[in-house]
Amino acid sequence: MSRDPRYDILFEPVKIGPVTARNRFFQVPHCNGMGHQHPQAHAAMRGMKAEGGWAVVATEECEIHPSGDVSPYVEARIWDDHDIPYLSMMTEAVHRHGSLAAVELVHNGPSASNLYSREVPLGPSHQPTNYYPFQVRAMDREDIRNYRRWHREAALRAKRAGFDIVYVYAGHDLSLPMHFLQRRRNQRIDEYGGSLENRVRLFRELIEEAKEAVGDTCGVVVRFAVDEMMGEDGISSEGEAKDIVAMLAELPDLWDVNLSNWKYDSQTSRFAEEGYQEPFTAFVKKLTSKPVVGVGRYTSPDRMVSLIKKGVLDMIGAARPSIADPYLPKKIEEGRLEDIRECIGCNICITGDMTITPMRCTQNPTQGEEWRKGWHPEIMPAKASNDRILIIGGGPAGLEAARALGQRGHEVALAEASTELGGRVNLESRLPGLSAWGRVRDYRLGQIAKMSNVETYPGSPMGVTDILDQGFERVVLATGATWRKDGVGRSHAFPIPGLDTAKVFSPDDIMAGRLPDKGPILVYDDDLFYLAGVLAERLAKAGLEVIYVTTADTASSWTSNTLEVYFVNKRLHALGVRVICQHDLVAVRNGVAEIAPAYGEAVQHIPVGAIVPVTARLPNDALYQELMAAPEKLKDAGIKSVTRIGDCLAPGLIAYAVYAGHRYARELDAPDLGEVKFRRALPLVTTP
Ligand code: ADP
Ligand code: SF4
What we know:
Strands 3-4-6-10-11-12-13-14 form an eight-stranded parallel barrel, surrounded by five helices. The protein folds into three domains: 5-354, Aldolase class I (TIM Barrel), CATH 3.20.20.70; 389-480 and 638-667, Rossmann fold, CATH 3.40.50.720; 483-618, FAD/NAD(P)-binding domain (3-Layer(bba) Sandwich), CATH 3.50.50.60. By secondary structure, it is of the alpha/beta class. The chain has 23 helices and 28 strands. Helix 1 packs parallel to helix 2 and helix 5 packs parallel to helix 6 (240-248). Bound molecules: adenosine-5'-diphosphate and iron/sulfur cluster. Residues 320, 323-324, 343-349, 361-363 line the site of iron/sulfur cluster.
């Protein structure tokens, strides 16, 4: 297949100072939870994107000095020459595929913790650090001179590590040049504070000095947050950002522009559409002749072309779309648009960085496994046997297992009880804001449709006899899970008294469209992730009065890890949902819910029309248990193995179900001996 000529424009080279990107696809810096602690995994992950056609592949933020240490978060590090070999692994992996490697140099200033280095944190003025119960000290002139020297030395080191592009980073409220720009932080009265020109001085000096140090061979680019979404109190695209871009317009070799802070930059599909940053960043190109990069969860090639043609961007920046599909550029280049695995905008990837673990992705189960398991996002090993596989259940686990086994060349049949394939993805993607999650199903159905060795059978509820009659060698149960109605979960080991006789609607009921007819509806969130919040939204939008009770400090508290918690709470408030935090549902009597506070004694009594407990799920594994109870029958039917995957084994995230399906297909022939199944980056032990 060859590409449609209307996408040719995306494959034009772009000059970035002394270096040239081979096309317009730019993987902008993104965190990944690997950083300096997992250098091999990090290098392989970045290298995969170069292989997949991203012309520029950047690191995440790369700390330049121990006084800007963000421990325990694991980012890249370039404190001294010892870091060079680790970073070189990445630049070599990127160069191997003809792409440019970029490094985002950072000193985190008031956003640093210095929990590891124990240095005193630095900032433009005396002020509390962003996240910790201690303060930064105001930098004096000598500190500023030192910082400039560290930055320059880091740029020189980056060049020695093989980087082609060096970033000066003023974004996300995470780096000193940004902190010096902000009026609210920079209250200096010297030449670095006060007027905008003075506040820009440090940013300008860093760019000039990086250019002087490495600009002969490296592109020196900036990442600049043009809007902090706080109006006059911050940098804003209607205010000072325009003046800042105008003042520095031709100085950097490229402008990478975005929103700040991170929750605005990486908004989920639940709260922002593809291209959501465009209204804020569009002005930049009018003020500079240098190439401009921007992000906005772009996965549509037509949208990309229009951005270039309209003169909004010169290069298509992407973090998440490059995680979900490292091969996105190559697929456009080869005219294989239907093969693109589009990011669903769920931010499970971000939970990796937030929980200080290598990131994972809902759409791309090989993400993070490139080095440690040797998994390639596009290539599967050929089948090692002629085993035919029967999969029961067409949710994310069953669909990915079918797709991946099909890619290996196995003969596969997928039986699904309902008339639609997709399982929980169908149900959840119909909830408010989650329609993009349907891409998990659509990508897999699209791939399966092209495989003559995979057959799907919707509308086929399977029992033991059906399975035994089919004559497949292997059986996979991907039959999902069911939400409990009895309140058992984190806070209750035993059923909540009174729920058995109360009007209870489970999340499955609501998702299937079975709604209570009158409120108030008490949504009890003891699950703490997204679902209770989305269900409350669904019910409120159906015109019902909703009371949201959670054991946590805030509604949908774990969505802090997907950067959504602020938006969730704002939305519930806007919908008039009454949120009661730090309370537990302890009983229901005669249509009255009793909720007890975490602190204090006073139990509240709330009359309710119905209760929606969001607490825990139980696997739908009855079929598995029945099959396993009849080993002789399995043997007679020629069945070699029966395996549970996804929610049927242990209810989890959609990402886990996809991963489980993929893993089954990869490891079908590998005996499970219970050993560690991946490579680890172990610290080098040296004798003094
Ligand atoms: P997962 O997230 O693990 O993929 P889902 O709940 O999304 O799980 O999907 C499970 C699917 O399995 C559902 O679509 C359900 O209809 C289907 N299913 C459950 N039991 C059977 C069965 N006995 N025969 C066929 N399909 C089944
Ligand atoms: Fe996109 Fe979700 Fe994958 Fe992140 S985890 S890249 S948001 S699909």
